[in-house]
């Protein structure tokens, strides 16, 4: 039985993660959960927070206080918090699944460094569909990339803080790598006013924040006379949460290293 801690248990993903672990109660159980100290859910049973009934585990306001109580931490909070949690786990040799997005490149390097000591799975999107779509994007980019304009459009709920989404950026990286381009040199984040016509080598990003959209991503490969669009639409956060729980059960007992969701899903075959 894998003992799982969930950071940010009162958040949208935190609550869904508790439900997802409950759905895998033959393999895993929630043995710790955290909130910020000023959260109204602080100290409340994590099962009650998530709406699945009491689990006998009260949410803690400090991960440090429950480091003995879990095998794997699942963290979908915010970049700074995730890094603090990661350092605590590194100090005691606990595995971490990171779903948080919005890291700077320097923060990503800190995560890679920590993964020299502990097993870490990190993915901006834990759904199987998105990770399969990344393979399709690589194929499409290699086949069409130099003859088409490539635009990435993403839409999320009004509460999302980071933009573009971590998934959209990952899609951009996969496409840029496939085409031998550097994303930081070719990315165009939104357009406004009068300027030059489009440079074919650029990869454009457009962001929508509205209502309760769970997460939509479309990549457009537009050429002369045809365009290919690859779209993924998440209709429930459970797709991300069940992917993260699968990653946590896969990660328990592994050797240190930075693993991707491709490793978990067996998509790393070439
Ligand atoms: N990889 C994937 O598949 C997915 C990734 N995400 C990412 O996950 C992250 C969270 O998303 P979402 O659940 O919608 O956001 P929420 O804001 O709903 O949840 C985050 C929760 O973490 C809490 N929190 C922040 N810092 C700490 C801390 N130090 N200790 C304990 N709790 C803390 C927040 O509290 P407070 O509100 O008080 O700040 C909040 O309750 C985002 O980065 C998002 O992009 C989301 C979905 C899928
Ligand atoms: O914040 C969200 O909600 C989501 N964030 C992730 C991202 O930034 O890509 C994944 C998913 O699309 C939902």
Automatic annotation (TrEMBL):
Keywords: Amino-acid biosynthesis, Cytoplasm, Diaminopimelate biosynthesis, Lysine biosynthesis, NAD, NADP, Oxidoreductase. Residues 2-126 form the Dihydrodipicolinate reductase N-terminal domain. The active site is at 156 (proton donor/acceptor), 160 (proton donor). It is found in: Cytoplasm. NAD(+) binds at residues 8-13, 99-101, 123-126. GO terms for biological process: diaminopimelate biosynthetic process; lysine biosynthetic process via diaminopimelate. It comes from the Bacteria. Pathway: Amino-acid biosynthesis; L-lysine biosynthesis via DAP pathway; (S)-tetrahydrodipicolinate from L-aspartate: step 4/4. It comes from Pseudohongiella spirulinae. It catalyses: (S)-2,3,4,5-tetrahydrodipicolinate + NAD(+) + H2O = (2S,4S)-4-hydroxy-2,3,4,5-tetrahydrodipicolinate + NADH + H(+); (S)-2,3,4,5-tetrahydrodipicolinate + NADP(+) + H2O = (2S,4S)-4-hydroxy-2,3,4,5-tetrahydrodipicolinate + NADPH + H(+). Residues 129-265 form the Dihydrodipicolinate reductase C-terminal domain. HAMAP family: DapB. Pfam families: DapB_C (PF05173), DapB_N (PF01113). Its EC number is 1.17.1.8. Its main location: cytoplasm. Belongs to the DapB family. Homotetramer. The keyword DNA damage does not apply. PROSITE patterns: DAPB. Catalyzes the conversion of 4-hydroxy-tetrahydrodipicolinate (HTPA) to tetrahydrodipicolinate. It is an enzyme of class 1 (oxidoreductase). This is 4-hydroxy-tetrahydrodipicolinate reductase. (S)-2,3,4,5-tetrahydrodipicolinate binds at residues 157, 166-167. One of its GO terms (cellular component) is cytosol.
């Amino acid at each position: 039985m894998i003992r799982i801690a969930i950071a940010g248990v009162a958040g949208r993903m935190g609550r869904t993660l508790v439900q997802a672990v409950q759905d895998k109660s033959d393999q895993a159980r929630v043995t710790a959960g955290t909130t910020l100290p000023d959260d109204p859910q602080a100290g409340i049973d994590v099962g009650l927070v998530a709406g699945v009934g009491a689990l006998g585990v009260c949410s803690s306001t400090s991960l440090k206080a429950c480091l003995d109580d879990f095998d794997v931490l699942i963290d979908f909070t915010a970049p700074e918090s995730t890094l603090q949690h990661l350092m605590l786990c590194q100090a005691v040799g606990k595995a971490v699944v990171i779903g948080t997005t919005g890291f700077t490149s320097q923060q990503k390097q800190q995560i890679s460094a920590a993964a020299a000591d502990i097993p870490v799975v990190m993915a901006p999107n834990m759904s199987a569909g998105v990770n399969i779509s990344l393979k399709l994007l690589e194929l499409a980019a290699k086949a069409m990339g130099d003859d088409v304009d490539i635009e990435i459009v993403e839409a999320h709920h009004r509460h999302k803080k980071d933009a573009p989404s971590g998934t959209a950026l990952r899609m951009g990286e996969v496409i840029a790598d496939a085409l031998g381009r550097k994303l930081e040199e070719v990315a165009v984040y939104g357009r406004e006013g009068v300027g030059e016509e489009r440079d074919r080598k650029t990869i454009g990003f457009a962001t929508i924040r509205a209502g309760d959209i769970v997460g939509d991503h479309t990549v457009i490969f537009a050429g002369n006379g045809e365009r290919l669009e690859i779209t993924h639409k998440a209709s429930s956060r459970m797709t991300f949460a069940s992917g993260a729980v699968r990653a946590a059960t896969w990660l328990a007992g592994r050797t240190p290293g930075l693993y991707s969701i491709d490793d978990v899903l067996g998509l790393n075959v070439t």
